[in-house]
Amino acid sequence: MCGIIGYIGARQATPILIGGLRKLEYRGYDSAGVSVFDPSGGPMSRVVRCRGKLSALEEKLQKEPAPGTVGMGHTRWATHGRPSDENSHPHKAGPISVIHNGIIENHLALRAELAAAGAKFSSETDTEIFAHLVEHALLAGAPDLTVAVRRSLAKVRGSFAFVVMSDKEPGTLVAAKNSSPLVVGLGDGENYVASDVTAILSETRRVIFIDEGEMVTVTRSGVQITDFDGKPHVREAKTITWSAVQAEKGGFKHYMLKEIHEQPRAVADTLVGRVNLESDDVVLDGVDLDVAKIKRIIFIACGTSYHASMVGEFMVESLARIPVEVDLASEFRYRDPILGPGDLVVAVSQSGETLDTMEAIREAKKKGAQVLAISNVVESSIPRLSDHAFYTHAGPEIGVASTKAFTTQLVGIALLAIYLGRRTQKLSKERARQLLAELVQLPVKMRDVVESGAQLQALARRYGHAHGFLFLGRGSQYPIALEGALKLKEISYIHAEGYAAGEMKHGPIALIDEHLPVIVLAPRGPHYEKVVSNLAEVRARQGKVLAVATKGDNEIGGHADDVILVPDTALELQPILTVLPLQMLSYYVADFKGTDIDQPRNLAKSVTVE
Ligand code: M6R
User: Fold this and answer.
1) pLDDT, tens digit, for every residue of 138-197?
2) Could you tell me which CATH number the domain at 257-443 has?
3) Which end of the chain is less congested by CB atoms within 10 angstroms, N or C?
4) Which tens digits make up the pLDDT trace of 447-502?
5) What residue ranges of the chain are covered by domains with CATH 3.40.50.10490?
6) How far apart, in whole angstroms, are the C-alpha atoms of residue 298 and residue 219?
7) Average pLDDT of the chain?
């Protein structure tokens, strides 16, 4: 999500930090800052930071220069706390400065603990807590910065990459990693630390990728890597041969493929701090609903977010038993919808800037409904316009075709459905416990699917020459059929239709012949038998069937030409797994055709016209 760079050496740090951050700009950010040791001033680190683009930071640095040869820089993509000067990184507590990528899950409890011990906070961020923890560890007798960071790490839960500096130890940078990326760059009499290799590639190609649960102490003369208990880890440096453009994409050919692979991690970030396995409940930060007053829920959204909303209808109705409607935001106003105070409108938008969705929210608010936004971009227009906001924390999505934004929306809506179900008392504690346990296991299951690229690549080669595709699904797999068709259309320019499987016989069956690949979503569940009958109908007309089914299903192979298997999970969560092979198939078909996958023709990432 956020961009991180640190430098320690003999050259002026600020230009290197700004240069590195500029290489990370493509990821999107809303504020930036640096902390640099000024040898002539104490030594004291100078923090310069502000909301806005790097050019705003550079302007500020003209007025408040930050000279020095040790420093770190950060671009923030807001998660906890709105984008503002105060919430920009680095954060300081006494002699300690910290930059951070990720989310500290137990930040509220730690904040209360530190405040009781006298800490004064100057931001709304979870990150500032870590600066205070390290300061407290030093005050409590930690002999150096490395030990102070190690003792502080023992207190935090969540995903993070931290870089920490201390005014008392100006020759050292200490960094630590859990889930968020971190790499060390090795130079000659100088070293670097960064969130992405891109940030340091113009300075060095010799790097060490830091592993989960490792921390590193970086000085001018070397790096020392240990685990969080201080046990040394010996690691070999690698020489990076990627071009700068390849490095931006993390070695993947396209952002879309990178984002497909980021999904397990993105979903884990959506879940951070929201699942309480002790009380079998969901914690929804930023959402304060009077559930007893909600008589109806109306989802409004466009494109992929609309498909997430359609799945949401199944989730909320089945788990909370509140009636749900789903509307295209672009159509909502034109039917003069009947709305009132008993209605909760849920506006789903990755970018938070889609004009159609904004206009639909205005209509809903005018008519007295409450609005909850589900968005990926903190403080974007849609959450600001809404009464409540839930952020998916998927990290910036660069590819125009939405992938990780979609799966994290589904996870967000599943959390909302469980939250509502517990409060309407239609969802038992026992069932909530099972669903939450399944949600927590999703990232591992998703990894299993996204790593099966070779099979999908082979299928794309086999079917990619077709002139059209049909996608079929029943129940909550119907929106996934729509999403699969949309993905394929968007990036490969092949005509594709998504249909409710039961509707095939009412028309589209006329299209079926040996040239039409039909992708059928057939995971285990209540509709399985009926879907298998639909497969038979397709094959009886020489159609080619590609089935997406559940691992362990030995029957489906007899009904399909090709089978893609995904792990089993709770019925309500199956769409989060079955959509993954469809995203990958679309990607590989488009790649096979050589289209501009990340910026398909005629499309924009955020649609701010009606
Ligand atoms: O940012 P939003 O979620 O509001 O965007 C809605 C649609 O424009 C978007 O989902 C679009 O359909 C994507 N290109 C799908 O891949």
Assistant:
1) 999 999 999 999 999 999 998 899 999 999 998 899 999 997 889 999 999 999 999 988
2) 3.40.50.10490
3) C
4) 999 998 999 999 999 999 999 999 999 999 999 999 999 999 999 999 999 999 99
5) 257-443, 452-593
6) 56
7) 93
Please give the structure tokens belonging to residue 456.
């999908």
DSSP string over 114-150: HHHTT----SS-SHHHHHHHHHHHHHTT-SSHHHHHH
Query: What's the pLDDT at 179?
Result: 78
Q: How confident is the model at residue 79 (pLDDT cuts 50, 70, 90)?
A: confident
Joined together, the tokens standing for residue 104 give: 């500290």
H/E run at residue 468: strand 468-473
User: Is the CB–ligand 1 distance for residue 599 below 6 Å?
Assistant: no
Q: Ligand 1 centre and the CA of 604: distance in Å?
A: 9
Give the Å distances, CA to CA, from 573 to 271, 444, 515. 14, 14, 32
Rounded to the nearest whole angstrom, what is the distance from the C-alpha of residue 543 to the centroid of ligand 1? 31
CB of 401 within 6 A of ligand 1: the answer is yes
CA of 485 to the centre of ligand 1 (A): 14
* Active-site residue, 50 included: no
* Residue 405 alpha carbon, nearest atom of ligand 1: 3
Residue range 27-46, pLDDT digits in tens:
778 899 999 997 666 668 89
Residue with tokens 């709770």: 570
Binding site membership of 376 for ligand 1 (Cβ less than 6 Å): no
User: At 80, is the pLDDT very low, low, confident or very high (cuts 50, 70, 90)?
Assistant: confident
2 among known catalytic residues: yes
Any atom of ligand 1 within 6 Å of the Cβ of 375: no
Distance 347 CA to ligand 1 centre (A): 13
- Fold for 3-248, please state it: Glutamine Phosphoribosylpyrophosphate, subunit 1, domain 1 (3.60.20)
**3.30.1360.40, 3.40.50.10490, 3.40.50.300, 3.40.50.720: CATH of 452-593:** 3.40.50.10490
Residue 574 Cβ inside 6 Å of ligand 1? The answer reads: no
Residue 47 in tokens? 């923090």
